[in-house]
Amino acid sequence: MSERILILGGTKEAVELATQLVNNGHDVTTSLAGRTKEPKLVDGKVRVGGFGGVDGLSSWIEDNKIDRLIDATHPFAEKISKNARLAAKRTNVIFEFRQRPAWQIQPSDKWTIVPDLITARQTIPNGARVFLALGSQYITPFADRRDVHFIIRMIDPPAKHLPFKSHTLLFQRPSPDWNVEADMLKEQNITHIVCRNSGGTGAYAKIEAARSLGLPVIMIERVVP
Ligand code: NAP
Question: Which of 79, 83, 221 gets mutated to test ligand 1 (max ligand atoms within 8 A of its CB)?
Answer without folding.
Answer: 79
